[in-house]
Amino acid sequence: MATLTAPTAAEHHDTFPINGTDYIEFYVGNAKQASLYYRAAFGFQLVGYRGPETGVRDRASYLLQQDKIRIVLTTPLGPTGPIAEHIGRHGDGVRDLAFWVDDARDAFAKAIERGAESVHGPEVMADPDGEVVIAAIKTYGDTIHSIIERRNYRGLFLPGFVAVTPAFAPPGVGLKYVDHCVGNVELGKMNFWVDFYARVLGFFNLLTFDDKDINTEYSALMSKVMSNGNGRIKFPINEPAVGKKKSQIEEYLDYYGGPGVQHIAMTTDNIIETVKALRARGVEFNQTPTTYYESLQARVGKIDEPLDTLQELGILVDRDDEGYLLQIFTKLVQDRPTLFFEIIQRKGAKGFGKGNFQALFESIEREQALRGNL
Question: What CATH number belongs to 20-163?
């Protein structure tokens, strides 16, 4: 059975304080076109740009923002180099899950002392608006964690970015901040990365799901959720479990070319209105069988939202000891079966929808079967 780990404050200590997610950077084949998609479909605003016009010769980056969520879309300007190689191996995907800290030099030094592998040490980026200190460490696959200190910076985002105000600026859809980011790793590697986050960053194991919790006749997965002390950073880590056929985690690893970020969960204060807006803009969601809703109220108790609306939109509900949550998962947002998004509204609940994991797993497996990869 899945178990909830609730250690006391004395049992875990963050290696260094993390204020939250600073940004998520994607390496993509065409950032200009990708930025248009995320603006039109998900309601992000294009607020900044860095590229040849700003003195950067090897890449172009578009800064998108909605409330506290910042996404950077970066594309290479030539056929070679690390960005092009990343895209050639993985397709469009997440390169950087960046931490916002108060002291990047101290944070980097402590992470390295505890066994982190360096991408680069602290570097100072400056312009007339001040300076930003950035360091970076490796995590699973080709994913990294940049460590960002911006206490002495008054500018838009980072030196090198300039503000832009495009004519096309569709309204947001109510997305607030990053709730959690899920990584897929190889069979036998989940506990290695759980140990990495515990040993290097001082995170603790918030929840554990095993193959008895999440399975079908054909496949299964195991997952552990790592969290920092203030709960602002949460990283579920999935690995495949042995089954009769290829699991969706194995499919991801095959198409992505190794471990990486599987999905990003973003919060909203009104999931019904957010999902309606996303659907109107062309975002597609995984289908939920009508049988799911027949026993929903018996399972989760009284909720504020009308059941018929939740069923119409395919929104899932789960409850824990502190309240309930509502969540829904998009279909894949690109042709490789790798990345998708989760929309989540928390009404007290601190969990991850344990009661919905099976429904999610089955819906993804149905899509996997349609691709002929089950």
Answer: 3.10.180.10
